[in-house]
Amino acid sequence: MMEMDGQQSAHGESYAYTSPYWAEFYDMWVEEIIGSAALTKDDDFFFNLLSPFLPNSTRVRGPLRVVDMATGTGRVIRGILQKMNSRAQGELPGDIQKELEIWGIDHSQAMINRAKGLLEDKMKPSTTIVWRTSAAANFVDENPELRNAVDLLIFAAGSIGHLTAHGERRKFLQQVVKALRITNPPQTPRSIAAISILKPDDGLQENCSEQHVAGKEVRFNAEMRKPSRQWPHLEYCKSETMTLKDKGILVNSFDLKIVETATGKLLSQEKYSWSLQVFSQTEWERELSDCGLSISQKVETGSETWYILHLANKKSLV
Ligand SMILES: C[S@@+](CC[C@H](N)C(=O)[O-])C[C@H]1O[C@@H](n2cnc3c(N)ncnc32)[C@H](O)[C@@H]1O
């Protein structure tokens, strides 16, 4: 099957998310930039997206199915499970947990491996997590079990900006329309896709569009040094990020050094990159409507604008 994947074709082996070192450093970097208080608020937000579906324990059409698109190191899934577990002490009937199936999908095997490692010891036998390495633009075609079978899809951290190939975002939205379960409100809650766009001055993906002049490099984030937990004898040193704007695409690149802590010896130094599409609200809302998705709500959180989407009446548009 032909895959459409802007990051893999633009960056190849230097694409940051293919590196197991970056996979570990990513979590430290996010915590530093976003802050642990804001990350905890995100967990509440993710759980609140799920809660309307929870009282519906008598399901006729299989489990309550959640897709975490571009799951990365599984931050969204960990947030949901932590909240589920704390509520489960009191309020949630056990059969609801058994019926919950969460899919973590990402095109990077390195990120999925880390997500699995972080989640394995937290999982209860009642939780089903399905991991898949698939590109966003093909995720239903590659996993046909998801067709008309997803109650909630979450695409966090503005990662939709990574769909930079021509037509890639539209192709992803068409997959979302195939995935969302056709429901019968008010008996069953309407299936939803929650997709976030980063606010322009967010630090996470150096997405400061106004500050960029075509062809001119801009520097973001100071150098960051952190010890590895996975490889305790090593430490990371990330350089500041260089950002170059070219035809509506921001290309971010940086060096990641791996240093032996005891001796200070430099073991490796790689240049990594990714790219992001500069967001245009008009274009985005036109694509949503062309693909058959309606906006139920827009929600502002700390650094993201969330679009809560449902199927427009005529699903046949795709
Ligand atoms: C900024 S991280 C977000 C990770 C996680 N969702 C979070 O909130 O922390 C971006 C993720 O998007 C993934 N990604 C980028 N483009 C993708 C694509 N076309 N298909 C699937 N995953 C993609 C990357 O591999 C990476 O794990």
From TrEMBL:
<protein>
    <recommendedName>
        <fullName>Methyltransferase domain-containing protein</fullName>
    </recommendedName>
</protein>
<dbReference type="InterPro" id="IPR029063">
    <property type="entry name" value="SAM-dependent_MTases_sf"/>
</dbReference>
